[in-house]
Amino acid sequence: MMADITWKLNGGRALGPAPFFIAGIVNVTPDSFYDGGLHASAGSAVEHAVRLAAQGADILDIGGESTRPYADPVSLEQEMERVVPVVRELSQMQMRGPDGEDVWPLISVDTYKAGVAAAALEAGAEIINDVSACAFDPQLVDVLGQYKPGYVLMHSLGRPETMQDEPHYDDVVDSIMLFFEQKLNVLQKAGLPAERVVLDPGIGFGKTLEHNFQILRNIERFMDFGLPVYMGLSNKSLWQGLLGLGPEDRCNATQVATALLAARGVAIHRVHEVALTRQSLTIVREMA
Q1: What is the average pLDDT across 201-205?
Q2: Which of 82, 88, 250, 270 is catalytic?
Q3: Is 189 considered catalytic here?
Q4: Is 207 an active-site residue?
Q5: Residue limits of the Pterin-binding domain (predicted)?
């Protein structure tokens, strides 16, 4: 059942309370699996972000490096050149609600690099979405402790270029639960309060099709930490594995799964199609 949640951020700011939040995906990359190259320039990425904001995104998640399976890494300098100008321009914009309140989405940056995270936070970002849980660049822990942003703690098994090479778990849900417990302790010791953290079990990141569905069947387990669950399954390859769908045909599957997960308490949904997702989640809210 949907219940209002709040995600606390740095500087006394907070997202919510609300029953759900939508993070709109803005890939400033040439090689992302779904929309690579469509918004690869800063100007095009900003225009796309503005469209997602108008459609009802609560968060704009800006990424400058593809983390799809077998993607090649990019340099710190290249990622900063892609991401920071977009963050800076978006952070200077505002959108007003019917009562005159500021309803411009929060800005998130999808990065595992400490240098990119620090530069993005200085430019106005408020959330760091890290696929590595600080494993790829350990200095990111220090950045999180210093700035205390919102943080998406995600589970993955290995790096994107190798994570789908025969992933194995004795029990995938138990393994992720232990992973979250250990990482939350590290983050708290570094100075990042637990209330700043949301948990992403990492669909498709070092998981087989069966691993992914074991996670989704047992999604309530991850709520035992008392933190919001963040879900990223928009148009991913599990829909090809289950239904034989190519990337352009996965929207309906994404919407059905998103609605089912929201009804079971998943609060934050990272998606490509923001307007459709807001429709789906509004229906769930009214029927829950």
Answers
A1: 95
A2: 270
A3: no
A4: no
A5: 20-282
